[in-house]
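User: I'm curious what two different proteins look like when written out as structure tokens. Can you demonstrate?

Assistant: Sure. I'll show them one after the other, since each token string lines up with its own sequence. Here's the first protein:
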Amino acid sequence: MKPPRDHVRLIRAFDIPPTKFGTAVWTTGVLGLFGLAAPIMLVPAGAIVAGVGGMSYTDRRAIAKGLREVEVFGFPVTGYRAWLLADTPAFDIELRRDVDLEVVRTSTTAIDPSIICDKKSPRVFRFVMRRVGLPNTKPHLPAIEVGDRRLLKELHRRILAPLQADVGIVRMVMGDNAKLEPLVAQLRNDDEAPVSDVLGLGAFRESAMAAPPALQALVHVGGERALPREARRLRLRNERVMHAANSSPSGFGTVAAITLGGLTTGGQFGVTGVWFGMAGGFIAGVFTVISGNRQNAKSVARAVSNQGYPIEDYGDWLLSGRPLMDIETVRPMNRQWFLETVCRLQAWSVTMGTMVSWVEDVTWFSDQEVRLETRPSYIQPPTSRIEPFYGGSHDMFRRFMVEVLAVVHRQYEIRVVKMGGYVDRRI
């Protein structure tokens, strides 16, 4: 299958509503045919062409604005567009002072273990990242894969910004790992003070190195323990939760039925009653749909909550392209047994055409707290109001409760299961 054009991928990467050319082209063609007989019909055809051109120009301006978002990093950045479109996104940074590789690598792993950090030369580090898969606006087409902007911004906030403040970053070059030429560090000035005089303790060269405080915190306490819950900001959240749980939310049919009932009732009081009945029925229908979907979404979470231990924010997990859950137990778990147990849970992969492990990543915070990242499902709501999206698998989690959580609870007593995740799927 032909991959999407770069323009389409960039529009999706920056979450820009795409311009729909199909209807405009079809309408312009019809009006052009009529214009052969009646030239006046060429006027609206020309207006449509001009409008489409204007919308396309707006798309390009929005993309250009998005590509400028790295200008706020505080140091020169090049190659952001190539990084977004790369098969394997990577970037090099050149520091003003040398630092120890293990400090940067351990700090990076604390944020996301999938990031590869390597030292190419003195003061030059390379970060290699995975892409994210964003649901295609056309349900029959595969996901659109682009660089992970959210993870890049988190890396800047927690790694690059502290390095810039404490060490200094000369420049950052981005692109595809296979095509990105290793960055060559610029020469020092002759009057530049020795590294040890500036930072002390050998500037990370000795075992007692004085690492930037923000990186020291990452090395010692690991990544942020709080689960991300990006799905809370999604529009039509309750309807999405019901689609993810294989249920059908109330919609226009309910509103129409209640409106018709109000119209019929009001019709008994004359023309004025018809209008009042129709308006009242419409308002009541909208209220019924909103409140009903809210209650039904809550019932989805309640359906998995009566297990003898609390399960928090199940709805957020259902809507996350990178579903995460933290399991906390009262007694320490046997790590080897737990890993063998969760790895036995298999799910069918449509993209690979085979059975794969449902649990994709395991991170231990302690013997009593573990974080799992599970494989998402591709959810296609039967309505145009909600685009297809990736989310946690409702059916697989029910299996997980029976085959894993029930056993863990019997042996180690689960204190709580916290759920959440990131909206964008990681490739």
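Here's a second, unrelated protein for contrast:
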Amino acid sequence: MATTLSSLHLANLLDYAACKGIDRSALQRLLYTPDADRTDGKGRVSRSEYCQVWEQMLQLSRDPHLGLHYGCFLNLKALGLIYQISLAASSIGQAMRLLDDYLNQTFSVVSLTSDVGPEHLVITLQSDLPEGPVRRHILDSVLFLMYRELGVLIEGPVSEVQLPHDDLSEYRRLCQSSVVRADAHRLRLTTGQVAGPINRRHLRQIETLLPIFLQLLDQSPNPQTPFAQQVRTMTLSLCAPELPTLDQVVAQFSLSHRTFQRRLTQENTSFRIIADDLKRQLSHYLEEGRSLRTQDIAYVLGYSSPSAYLHAVKKWRTQPFFDGM
């Protein structure tokens, strides 16, 4: 059993903590080398350090669905991995084997097994961590990261999500597939989806959008609007590659819609202003590149039709760029 995992997984977790407003430095003080650069793909951290950070985040965030929300947050960070896997795979089955290899090499706390039946493939996640909240939330996070990854690669939604929890309401709210109670963390796909080709249309969108997503994340934050900056970063991170809804963003902060909007109002902005500014910058980038059709741009930006998107573009051309961030 490997006792270390890739430092990138810890770096992602610390980024998420900062995005939720948790004091990153308090978490780093739990580590043997608090100031080390963990963005180097060759770095390693101990399993115990990783689990200690999870335990502290559960206490500080008071989020009963932290694992689920973290798995959703990893969408943007996973897009690069999905794209790399897709370049090396010609089918979903082959992509699954590459993903299994990736977990074995970089994330020893979770493993997966696949059971192929006449009609379905069932993927089961396992962990040798001690039973308890940390184990449960880590399995939740990996399951929903895989759920979103597979949703990009396959044609159609994952058939079913299975979870060993009594209350599944939040999972069902954030998940388009059927969510049922079971004795383990599982995903179920049809054999047709597994045997079928990778969804190349989604991958073209990822290839086109990933550079601008990363560029927008790297923009300097405005210290005068700390909560608005958290919301902006969270919104970008939840892209898969389409932009998230208001409900999906609010869920990450464990706030009511009213409190969420009030905190933005106190910084003289709103979720609509933040989302429209991101849509405008993405639209400008995509139209310059001319690599996606208008209907694909409309879908990624969350418009109900190409005509609704074109109406928004016409309005943007008469307005200056918003710089309240």
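A detail about the second structure: The CA atoms of residues 65 and 170 lie 8 Å apart.
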